[in-house]
Write a structure and sequence with these properties.
Elements lengths: L15 H4 L5 H15 L12 E6 L4 E5 L12 H11 L7 E7 L10 H8 L7 E5 L5 E5 H4 L12 H5 L2 H9 L1
Parallel strand pairs: 3-4
Antiparallel strand pairs: 1-2, 1-3, 4-5
The structure holds zinc ion.
The site of zinc ion has 6 residues, from helix 4.
Family: Belongs to the cytidine and deoxycytidylate deaminase family.
Keywords: Hydrolase, Metal-binding, Zinc
Protein name: Cytidine deaminase
Length: about 180
């Protein structure tokens, strides 16, 4: 069911590649519209690089974010981290995130920066799709695992039991 470019509204075309990740076309439509809408609210007077983000949660709700910059440049934060922080404060837990969409004004689409990939990794499964929209609303879809291979997550941290059994601790006891 192809639509010609003249029939499709900009930013609202169907994105069949996302459907393989278990999202309905309605989910994809909502993620697309809400990330592009969030982009319009970016505060980026220094870079002029607008980024909008939308997150689809398991309950069907959408949380938005946009980049918010600062006169002290490194203090500014990315759209993805604004959106995830908002979702967490609203009660979202690890496992509640179904998909993340990011929209920018460039083409080909921009992907989340390294810091955001790690931030996303804290709360999301490796097979979660990340939809990246270009200036014309065309998307590329990749999973978190593809964007952040061999990643480090909270489950990799040692438990307090494991830390107590660290070899150097034992040898110190033997010396005494
Ligand atoms: Zn980022």
């Amino acid at each position: 069911m192809a639509t010609t470019p003249t029939q499709a509204k900009p930013g609202h075309a169907r994105h069949d590649t996302a459907l393989i990740h278990g999202l309905s076309s309605a989910d994809v439509q909502k993620l697309s519209e809400m990330s592009i809408e969030a982009k319009a609210r970016a505060y980026c007077p220094y870079s002029l690089f607008r980024v909008g983000c939308s997150i689809l949660l398991k309950d069907g709700s959408i949380v938005q974010g946009a980049n918010v910059e600062n006169a002290a440049y490194p203090v500014g934060t990315c759209a993805e981290r604004v959106a995830i922080g908002t979702a967490v404060v609203q009660g979202a837990k690890k496992g509640d995130f179904r998909a993340i969409a990011v929209a920018t004004d460039i083409t080909p689409p921009a992907s989340p920066c390294g810091m955001c990939r790690q931030f996303i990794r804290e709360f999301c499964e490796l097979d979660m799709p990340i939809l990246m929209y270009d200036k014309n609303g065309k998307s590329v879809v990749m999973t978190l695992g593809q964007l952040l291979p061999m990643s480090f997550g909270p489950e990799k941290l040692l438990s307090t039991d494991q830390i107590a059994l660290e070899p150097h601790q034992e040898s110190r006891h033997e010396e005494n």
